[in-house]
């Protein structure tokens, strides 16, 4: 029997994870990737995070600004805006409800 494929789970929650990673501090692409991996999402791919950042920006949930760097190219930082914070709150509630339902199913306590 096949175990749960973490990469498939990541596809469904990467938007939420990236928004959560930006909740308290702005960050540039590699910094956000590092935060996600440090939090336990070791399987998240570079391209997935950068694509997610572009998509969330285009959806109006993030703002960007550029910071010069003495060590290489300028860094593009991403920040949550009001729409992004509202989306994070809504999505977080949906996620918590889903987790609660799955916990009940796995524990055998669902109706």
List the helices and strands and how they pair.
Layout: H1 6-21, E1 27-28, H2 29-38, H3 46-58, E2 62-67, E3 75-80, H4 82-107
Antiparallel strand pairs: 1-3, 2-3
Helix pairs in contact: 1-4, 2-3
Domain Transcription regulator PadR N-terminal: 18-89
Pfam family, one: PadR
Organism: Virgisporangium ochraceum
Describe this structure in words.
It comes from Virgisporangium ochraceum. This is PadR family transcriptional regulator. Residues 18-89 form the Transcription regulator PadR N-terminal domain. The longest helix is centred in the last third of the chain and has 26 residues, at 82-107. This protein has helices at 6-21, 29-38, 46-58, 82-107; strands at residues 27-28, 62-67, 75-80. The chain starts with 5 loop residues before the first helix and ends with a helix. The mean pLDDT is 92. It is 59% helix and 13% strand. It contains 4 helices and 3 strands, in the order H-E-H-H-E-E-H.
